[in-house]
Amino acid sequence: MNTYTSRPVVLCLSGHDPSGGAGLQADIEALLAQGCHAAPTITALTVQDTVNVIDFRVLERDWVLAQANAVIADLPIAAVKLGMLGSLEMVEVVQEILQKLPGLPIVCDPVLRAGGGGALGRDEVGLALRERLLPLASIATPNLPEARLLAELPEGTADECAAKLLPYVEHLLITGGHGDETEVHNRLYSRDGDQHSFSCPRLPGSYHGSGCTLASALAGRVALGEAWVSAVRSALDYTWRTLRDAEAPGRGQYLPRRLPLDIS
Hints:
With 264 residues, this protein is α/β, with parallel strands linked by helices. It has 8 helices and 9 strands. It has a 9-stranded mixed sheet with strand order 3-2-1-4-5-6-7-8-9, with helices on both faces. A hairpin with an 8-residue loop joins strand 7 and strand 8. The two termini are 18 Å apart. The mean pLDDT is 92.
């Protein structure tokens, strides 16, 4: 039997989406596509489809800690990806977990609403995430509406939100695509003043799980040792391709095609 140890392990702390479009399934597929191994720790269970979120339940503290501790004790974690947390208590639990993993690259996807608009946590969860978790993260990947919530700037531009959020986190990737522009502009800000802009053609349609896909791909790229700017570019390019090739298996949004049909 062959034994392989070359695939970096990424610890994923996020919710379960039974439609398979977002959440931990998106994390697993995107990380597989980067050549990484996903170690999924469930923070919440959701009732949702490709149209919207119907309900969710955050798991008990002890269950989440037990999952994460088992993985940390057994596997060599190379990076961490944070997704849906859903409650103030879960923010505190994840803070406790991250403090056991100093020095690792941490990608924080501040999941506050689903693509269909349904809430995946109350507003105070976003503020707690900003105060407690962004200082522990290497990079946060909000879309512009999420960045406005985190920055408490309802009409803020990406630049204005970045100015408010960079004191909390070293790197900030604010993604576009929520207006009516023909080109999507994604902006990477760093606390040292470095800025990069990445653009891509806007695709028609609405997509479920694009943010999870991007953040997980980014976590995979940095787990493989890629530098931040290059890793962001790689993750954005990969995510755009998954949306270009997306399919609509249900009655709602398109789901990114994160893996090729033939993966043999």
